[in-house]
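Subject: Sanity check before I submit

Could someone independently write out the structure tokens for this chain? I want to compare against mine line by line before I put it in a report. The sequence has 192 residues.
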Amino acid sequence: KRQKHTGKLAFLFSGPVLGYLLLVVVPYVVINGFTSYFLPIFGDSYGLSESQTSLLLVMNCLVGIFLSEALTGLTMKYLGRGAIYLSSALSLGAVLLFGYFQNLPMLALTLFLLGASKSFGREILFCRQPVVAQYGEDEAMGYYNLADNLGESIGTMVFGGMLSIGLVTGMWIFTGISAVTLGIYTLMGKKK
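---
Independent answer below. Compare away.
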């Protein structure tokens, strides 16, 4: 048992795994928290009923589902690891656009783009890491889901802070932080 526990810690704290989870997955999940945190607030402020707000959320999910097969294949084929950066830029850009043009059509476009950004193969890139293949994808995905849950938890605090300082200002700060985390992740990959 002791050796197995050490194996789990060694896996989790290995550079590629910890770097990917903390520097790529967590910021991405935080920004996609827009759908669960801001959508109800802005939907209510635009006079949308709960049913209409729910329809926007369903649209967001369906975009991710229907585009995932095509976009994942294309981004993996042509961009590989670069899909991480495109997905993050699309998510951050969508929320920044909404911050500047806070209206109902922009809310729908933001949700569409956030749904599309879910289709870029983030999980596949995690599983393609050699250390993940050695450890086993099934168990490794448990750690991925843990990072996902961590991002959701942090996201509510981040968006709460954005509301207090202003959405646009908060988004620019978060965009800068995300750029730094992606830059660190890129540097970690180049050290290999």
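---
OP: Matches mine. For the report I'm noting this point. The CA atoms of residues 38 and 159 lie 8 Å apart.
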